[in-house]
Amino acid sequence: MHNQSFLDDVKTAMQVAFFKQADMHHVASDKSKTKSALLIIVVAALLSFLGQQFFSSWVKPALTTGLLMSLFQVIMMVVGIYVMSFVAQKIFKGSGAHDAFFRVLGFAVIVSWISLIPMLGLISALWSLALVFVILKAVHKLTTGGAIGTIIVSIVIMGLIGMVTAPLFGGYGMGSIGKFRGETYKFNTPYGGATMDVEDEDTFEMSVPTEEGTGNVKMEDRKMTITSPDGEVMEITIPSYE
Question: Which domain does 12 fall in, by range?
Answer without folding.
Answer: 6-176
